[in-house]
Amino acid sequence: MLFVLLLTIKLDKEREKVRLSAKTITLQKKFLRAILVQILTPFLVLILPLFYVGPSILLDYYNQTFNDICIITMSLHGLFATIVMLVIHEPYRKYCSKFLCRSSKVTIRSDHFYIVSTQNESKV
After folding, report:
1. d(CA 25, CA 90)
2. How far is CA 108 from CA 66, 83, 117, 124, in A?
3. What CA–CA distance (Å, rounded) separates 122 from 13?
4. What string of pLDDT tens digits covers the 124 residues of the chain?
5. Where are the domains of the chain?
6. pTM for the whole thing?
7. Are 118 and 101 in contact (CB under 8 A)?
8. Start-to-end Cα distance in the chain
């Protein structure tokens, strides 16, 4: 959070000194929003379960179900952070959509059945 705040202040000061195009300013704002979301995701995934864990420890309250949910949520923060990164950054999003939405072509040749994809060819 501090990083994003300092970066925003620095970029605002630089904008006053140097004339930047509207496209550059738009790209900088877009980048800052993406970084902020990318920082907030693990922060929220790790902090929200602590709102239960902290008081439950202090109040000596034990609930196995809630404890398990908190541990699972906290252990999945890397997965959540990766998914958010792939969604919010356009180059990653484009590559993943191209990679995941790839269609295979089915071709029949004389006596063999082939599944042809863009990566490799397998003989069945």
Report:
1. 17
2. 54, 38, 14, 11
3. 58
4. 677 777 777 777 777 777 778 788 788 888 888 888 888 888 888 888 999 999 999 999 999 999 999 999 999 988 999 998 888 888 888 888 887 776 555 454 555 545 555 555 445 4
5. 2-88
6. 0.59
7. no
8. 53
